[in-house]
Amino acid sequence: MTDNSNIQLEFDNIRSNPQFLKETYFKDIEKYAGKPRSLRNYVSEAINLMTEDQIVPEASFSINNAGDRVTVSSPRLGIALGSTFASDLTQKGTLTLSNPFGQGGEIGCETSIGVYKSLLGGVFYKDRFQNRIELSKRQESPSEYNHQIRTVESSLVLQPKKIGNHFFTIYAGERRTSAVGQDRDEELRNHTGISQKFSLTHKYYFNRQSIDRSVWGRLSTEIATGKSPFLKCESLLHSAVELSQDWKFETTIGLGGIYNFTNGLTPFVDRFYNGQSYHLKGFNFKGLATSKNKKTYFGGDLYHTTSFSVSKYLNEKGVHLFAFYSVGNSILSYNNVKDNFKNLFSPSLYRHSVGAGVRCEMGPGLVDIYLSTVLKKQPTDQTHTCGFNVTLRL
């Protein structure tokens, strides 16, 4: 209990020091003594701030008839289980505890299982200012789309509080890539090994608040040091033009490139892959042959994709019917800049696909479920006729 000459504050079932709560959220409460309506509004706003800072998952309050005692209580402790499905086709589960040290924020653990034999486990802490630190380990085993490569990644990641639409990530980690199976040729061995990385990533999102805006997108830049230092840049631009009340024409353009400061290959886990960094509809996850030996799971250092679609609005829940045409390319660099860009933008190497499906607006992203036909591909590309992808604005 915290005493005040005018108003007495009590906190029930809240794991924080009462003095900390008063000084942080209720420091001006005495100004509202004798003003019942203003007092209720002030306490309600303070509880909203406590919820945002994860002091409590939810709370209620009561004021006695005399108006000189306020009781704030939380009906439950902030323990929560959650599950999400990410754009890289992984199912993530989380267990969190709010306000673990009495200063807000949350601590938790998370695990994820991917459709293509990827596993991740980690623990994290996020303070009430939204600064986050995470320690995790990720493993991807050989699968239908990655026949001979196993990767294991251990990392420490710090994500400071966002500044407007700017997000920063500091990464330190070790990645191990190994070949399995009988057919471990020299080319395959060139893509394996151990690498350490320390990097800073900056992401900028524009017009991300509303999916209805005519133009939105993101820019991402990562500068990495370690055994194979590199500069990695990506951009996504989505535009929409209203053709009529229910019809819309949309364009999505994605570009990405990695410049390696050494003469070696970019580390395996840092490359671009279809279904992770970009979505070229009609082609399987990691299904583009980008390397000299045409193995699809080696990824690329450069990519570009463009998709045009016409959609018809169906209902107020954000469901659309759409038809699309997609074109793009991705290549793995071998330190020949001139040939790399020549091959990347060579029309003879482009992949083309068309199709139709259903698009749903779900929270911060677009979910596409579609049928497709590939018009042109490289001989060893892997394709499908039915697929889905998620494009996130956040």
Automatic annotation (TrEMBL):
It is found in: Membrane. GO terms for cellular component: outer membrane. Pfam families: Omp85. Keywords: Membrane. The keyword Membrane applies. Residues 101-389 form the Bacterial surface antigen (D15) domain. It comes from the Eukaryota. InterPro entries: Bac_surfAg_D15 (IPR000184). Its main location: membrane. This is Bacterial surface antigen (D15) domain-containing protein.
